[in-house]
C-alpha cells in the first residue's frame, strides 16, 4: 500500500492554487487608426498623416497599451510628393490602485524626441481629475532644450452625458533659454495655457454613438529671457470643436471617426518697429481621425 506524505500533498496543493490564481498576460484588443492634421497656411498640403497600430494587453489589475506609428507629410501642389516626417513607439502601463484611482506610466519615442510620463486618472461619481506630467528629451536634430511639461485636469464635474473639466498645459524649458535656435528665434522660458474642455454624448443607440467635444482657451502666455517680438494666442483666441461617431458593427468590432475644426486669433507681444506682424497664417486648424478596434 502506497503512503502519501500529508506535507507533500499540502505543498502540491498550495503550488497548484498559486499557479491557478496567478494572472495571465492576455490580449484584450487590436486596432488601427489614421489621423490627419493640417493648418490652413499650407493650402491643400497635409502637414501630418499618421498611421497608428494599437494592441491592448491585460495582466491582473494592470493594463498595457502598445502603439507603433508612422508619420508623413503630403505636398499636393508643388513637388507632389509624400515624405516621411517621423515615427512613434509608445508604451502605456496602468494600474488600478483603488476603485476610483488609476496610476500609469507612458514612454513615447519619436525621431525628434523621447518622453517619459507619469499619469493619473481619478473618477468619483460627480467629480473627476486626470493628468500627464512628462520629461521631454530632445534629439540633437532639433537643436533646442529639453523640457518639463504637463497637461492636467485639476478638477472636473460630470453628470449623465455631460462632462466639463478645467485644463492646464504648461511647458518649462530647461537649460540656457538665452540661446538662439537655428531658426533665428530665442528659446522660450515657459508657456502656460488655460482651457475649459466640455464633452457631451448627445445620441446613444444600440450600435451608433454620437458625441461632441469643445476646447476653449481662456489665456495663453509665454516668456523669454530676453525681450523679443513673439506671437501667441489671444485671450479666448483658440477654440476647437469635435464631432465624434462610434459604430459597433459586432459585439467585438467597433469603427470610429472624428472631425475637428479650430479657430485661432493671435496677438503680438514686445512688438518693435520693423518686426513681422500677423500674416493670418495658421488661423485655422483641422483634425480628422478614422479607425477600428476589435476587443477580445
How does this structure look, described?
The protein has 296 residues and is mainly beta. Helix content is 5%, strand content 67%. The protein is built from 1 helix and 14 strands; from the N terminus they run αββββββββββββββ. It has a 14-stranded antiparallel barrel. The N and C termini lie far apart (50 Å). About 4% of the residues have low confidence.
Brief summary of the model shown:
The protein contains one helix and 14 strands; from the N terminus they run αββββββββββββββ. It is mainly beta and 296 residues long.
The 3D shape can be described as globular
Instruction: Note the quaternary state here.
Output: single chain
Structural class: mainly beta
Order the strands across the largest sheet as they lie in space.
1-2-3-4-5-6-7-8-9-10-11-12-13-14
Total helical elements: 1
The value of Rg in angstroms is 24 Å
Blueprint of the fold:
Elements: H1 6-21, E1 26-39, E2 46-59, E3 62-74, E4 82-96, E5 101-110, E6 113-124, E7 127-138, E8 147-159, E9 162-173, E10 188-204, E11 208-224, E12 230-248, E13 253-269, E14 284-295
Which features characterize this protein?
1 helix, 14 strands, mainly beta, 296 residues
Amino acid at each position: 500500500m502506497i503512503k502519501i506524505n500529508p506535507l507533500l500533498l499540502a505543498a502540491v496543493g498550495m503550488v497548484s492554487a498559486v499557479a491557478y490564481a496567478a494572472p495571465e498576460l492576455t490580449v484584450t484588443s487590436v486596432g488601427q487608426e489614421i489621423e490627419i492634421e493640417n493648418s490652413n497656411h499650407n493650402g491643400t498640403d497635409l502637414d501630418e498623416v499618421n498611421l497608428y497600430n494599437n494592441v491592448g494587453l491585460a495582466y491582473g489589475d494592470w493594463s498595457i497599451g502598445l502603439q507603433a506609428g508612422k508619420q508623413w507629410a503630403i505636398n499636393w501642389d508643388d513637388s507632389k510628393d509624400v515624405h516621411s516626417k517621423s515615427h512613434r513607439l509608445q508604451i502605456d502601463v496602468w494600474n488600478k490602485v483603488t476603485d476610483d484611482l488609476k496610476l500609469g506610466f507612458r514612454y513615447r519615442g519619436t525621431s525628434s524626441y523621447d518622453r517619459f510620463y507619469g499619469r493619473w486618472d481619478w473618477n468619483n461619481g460627480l467629480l473627476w481629475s486626470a493628468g500627464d506630467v512628462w520629461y521631454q528629451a530632445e534629439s540633437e536634430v532639433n537643436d533646442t532644450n529639453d523640457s518639463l511639461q504637463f497637461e492636467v485636469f485639476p478638477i472636473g464635474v460630470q453628470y449623465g452625458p455631460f462632462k466639463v473639466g478645467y485644463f492646464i498645459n504648461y511647458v518649462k524649458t530647461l537649460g540656457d533659454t538665452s540661446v538662439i535656435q537655428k531658426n533665428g528665434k530665442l528659446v522660450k522660458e515657459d508657456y502656460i495655457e488655460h482651457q475649459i474642455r466640455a464633452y457631451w454624448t448627445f445620441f446613444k443607440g444600440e450600435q451608433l454613438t454620437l458625441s461632441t467635444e469643445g476646447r476653449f482657451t481662456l489665456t495663453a502666455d509665454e516668456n523669454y529671457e530676453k525681450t523679443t517680438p513673439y506671437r501667441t494666442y489671444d485671450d479666448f483666441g483658440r477654440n476647437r470643436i469635435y464631432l465624434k461617431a462610434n459604430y459597433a458593427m459586432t459585439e467585438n468590432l467597433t469603427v470610429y471617426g472624428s472631425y475637428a475644426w479650430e479657430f485661432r486669433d493671435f496677438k503680438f507681444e514686445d512688438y518693435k518697429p520693423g518686426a513681422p506682424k500677423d500674416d493670418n497664417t495658421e488661423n485655422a486648424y483641422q483634425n480628422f481621425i478614422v479607425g477600428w478596434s476589435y476587443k477580445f
